[in-house]
């Protein structure tokens, strides 16, 4: 372990001992893939951060994740902290077994792909991101007025390849499926109109990151540009960013059922312990460090599949697919880094300096300190790059400090966070599930890349666009195959 990491751990623990309340409420610093500290990045306005309005916004988004459009699921999020309800398989529940399996660090074979969150105020996939004259203003009306003034029908009729190339992903898709009414694009702008008519504005945080996050690892990466034909034999260039956007929209509006752990907390001022600053609200404390540790090691490490990370009280981390992790130990009695599990393990009866003693489980016999670095993928701006690879993904890292409680058999049963801004809501679609519209079975026959879509595919795609605001899964999945 590098000496500077050991020093970082010891410095954090020393600060925690001196003023636990201040450290518990710190905003965890974020770093890039090289470990360099990066400036704060958030989808929320400063006023939303200052007023903590982003907490309620996230709660609304979570309910949408658990109640996708067309679903009859209506129950509120229940407190749920069992990692087996999230992971593909719970193979390890002891620290020594994790270490023996080489799971103190792990990363996926390839990072989930970065994509835009496709803001509603820009028109979601209706945004002409490659058009230098497109306003991309925070004022939704300015953006939609520009599109109305330069309708796609006229651009397509011009046969001007450069102008056609600058159309938005949804406009290209509408042309691909032969939809002269532009159903998908209309639905993109209608989403913002509803908010604008009600509130006079569209919040800049609103978008489809809840679709991008799972799509980024549930679907393969579009690696290259694909040239496709409209029914009128007009060539359309779909860049990797265009295909990613369509995939994100599909998963935003037609996602399959979700596996999750974490409670529902939309309290801007949750109750906390006056000495340590530890949250005492059971829902706002979720996820317990034990559930977090078991989830990430078993999902990323043992199952080699991502999951989505969301932290309620950290406005910088929201619906981010996890890429890798690594952890080391510290001794919670001595509050210093320790290289071995044995040296970091404290008998609960001898844990005289425990600041969280009144919160400990009666079944806990041992306590072990954990320092974990987590890497996750964040959004990037769409572009006309002709290829895409993991080198284009934007990775961020964050450190979490916590301890784990072990029972008499050394099984992980609980723990305490040393920061309040910790992972609290984790979710993923189950392995192998597919986001799809209600019209997939209607798309019969085969589609060859150099040919227009089969008539049955066109009909099905138009229905999905009009009725579900989504592209046809069959088309998107085939486009990704073309882009391999």
Q: What do these coordinates show?
A:
The chain has 484 residues and is α+β, with helices and mostly antiparallel strands. It folds into 2 domains: 3-45 and 85-113 and 271-429, no CATH class; 120-255 and 436-482, no CATH class. Helices cover 33% and strands 15% of the residues. The protein contains 17 helices and 13 strands. It has helices at residues 3-18, 20-24, 46-50, 53-66, 95-100, 140-149, 152-157, 161-165, 169-176, 183-199, 209-218, 240-253, 282-285, 289-302, 341-344, 455-468, 473-482; strands spanning 30-31, 105-107, 226-229, 235-238, 258-261, 308-310, 320-331, 336-338, 345-347, 366-378, 394-406, 412-417, 425-429. Strands 1, 2, 5, 6, 7, 8, 9, 10, 11, 12 and 13 form an 11-stranded antiparallel sheet that branches. A two-stranded antiparallel sheet has the order 3-4. A hairpin with a 5-residue loop joins strand 3 and strand 4. The longest helix is centred in the middle third of the chain and has 17 residues, at 183-199. The chain is elongated, with a radius of gyration of 24 Å.
- Approximate shape: elongated
Strand residue content: 15-25%
SSE-based structural type: alpha+beta
What is the number of E strands?
13
Distance between the termini: 38 Å
Q: Describe the main β-sheet briefly.
A: 11 strands, antiparallel
**Low-confidence parts:** 69-79
Helix content: 25-40%
What is the CA-based Rg, rounded? Answer: 24 Å
Mean pLDDT: 93
Number of helices: 17
